[in-house]
Amino acid sequence: MSLVSPLVELFAAHGRDASKSEAATAVGTRDVGDDVLAASTGVVLADISDWGHFTLGGRDGAKFLQGLVTNDVVGLAPGAGCRVAFLNVHGRFEAVATVFSCDGVLVLQTPPAATLWVETFLSKYRRAGDFQFERIADAAAVTLQGPLAGAVLGEVLGTEPGADSTLWCGVTTFEGVMLRIMRSPRSLAGGYDVVGPADAVRDLVERVCAKQPEPPVVIGDGALEVLRIEAGIPAYLKDFDADTVLQEIDESDIVSFNKGCYLGQEIVARIHFQGQPSKLLRRLIVRGDCVPVAGDEVLAEDDEKSAGRITSVAVSPTRGLIVFAMIKRRFYQPGTSVRIRRDDREFKATVVERVGAPATEDAP
What we know:
By secondary structure, this protein is α+β, with helices and mostly antiparallel strands.
């Protein structure tokens, strides 16, 4: 979370102790479970001001970015978005972002772990052509998640934004101030991010609260993490990192094989057309009542060969235990039995589908 939240003082005034949710970062705690349930039935709010938000404009802006990322940003229709990766020459991740075509510019949204790299890297090229790359100054950002998020936001703005698109970005004026509204997946139910000057974002949240019989639930990092894992969304520097080749996260929507050249393309194309990744991000079904933690070792079923490691774990109030692991080639076929080792304990597990296939409610 950002150090200065536009929500804490506001929700305290509405009788909601935001600090309780802010502090609940242990995945699977009772408070987190209650917040996750609220996100599946109504609408919740969270501060995401620590995410990076940038604009890239000018005649050469889209063309410049096109040569640096894995997806087709030149082909984005107005309001549309796509996920992208920045790679090194070996096809491994440097950073990730979501890029939107919005109001005549490209808007880049980056997770906290990638923000500094993206800003530093793209800033080096400010004088390389007719484009302007800028961080959205003095911005705050909140997200509304849940099946009622669009209706609640639409009641305040006068129209429900981007209801038919998974990735969407638009501009609205709220009390004379421009805000960007983004639809970007953070949960199974979906929702919207609002980005703009801190005072305007705070005023919008105040208006949302005033129109509801009870203040919406404010959630913290713990609940956002459970929602992410429920939705099967891999996280940079948690589920994959600079040692991961693009295809190893098994997310087809982050790359286009029909666009022009970009850094790392040769390795990506070679794996796509001729080979298999040396490891893949997979979900595991864990037997018994043990809950693994990120970093636990995954072993072959019948010997001491390493099969991978656990990357993300959540205890969902509706879907139970959800476990992501980076699994080596010999073991990543669905149905493969493995063991998880933590200290002197071991428990059995089965490799199942790709992480991007959300956990079903009847999953063990």
